[in-house]
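Q: Could you predict the 3D structure of tRNA (guanine-N(1)-)-methyltransferase?
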Amino acid sequence: MHIEVFSLFPGMFEGVFNASIMKKAQEKGAVTFNVTDFRAYSENKHSQVDDYPYGGGAGMVLKPEPLFNAVESLQTSGKAPRVILMCPQGERFTQKKAEELAQEENLVFLCGHYEGYDERIREHLVTDEISIGDFVLTGGELAAMTVVDSVVRLLPGVLGQADSHIQDSFSTGLLEHPHYTRPADYRGMKVPDVLLSGNHAKIAQWRDEQSLKRTFERRPDLLEHIELTEKQQAYLNTLKK
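A: Sure. Here are the predicted structure tokens for tRNA (guanine-N(1)-)-methyltransferase:
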């Protein structure tokens, strides 16, 4: 996968893209990154990328030509890239969306600042508008980093084990079950006996039930969107009682 980022502050991405899993993903050849200051694509002699909004109002608005020029400068073969606008008005980002984007060969992220975007950017340039939550940041950079991290870790070969992400919270529709490691008894706080039993069937059942219990307690809204097995539904009924 190749990921292109257009930002007014490309230096913000250096630490994130060159550390931890992002660095390992590049070393393994799973992903390549390029971060560009789209100010270079301004047609103004002062490299201006924003202007006052028509009709008046507070703040400045990003002009259309720098971002159009930046995206159109990309030389891509085959399928056109997904062009993603990071914006609080966009679709709420989910694990399902991350899995969808992980199937693409090319992703382009547009990170804006100021009061907003010229509407023609939304209507005629981007394919996706994504929000990471119902709050406003000073720019799209941190949001883009969040989405990129979520997507890249799903690429084949990036994580240590091929199925490491399968049981992640939200991948199954439920929150992930609790985890424990050594020592088995720490200050009187003990690991559940079932995890020490060696009975893999019982361990799998315990993890499934704990995942369902945690979802019921912390994010019951998720249960409205998934189809439960008969055993899961029976256990959920027990929890409700």
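Q: Anything worth pointing out?
A: The domain at 2-152 is CATH 3.40.1280.10 (Alpha/beta knot).
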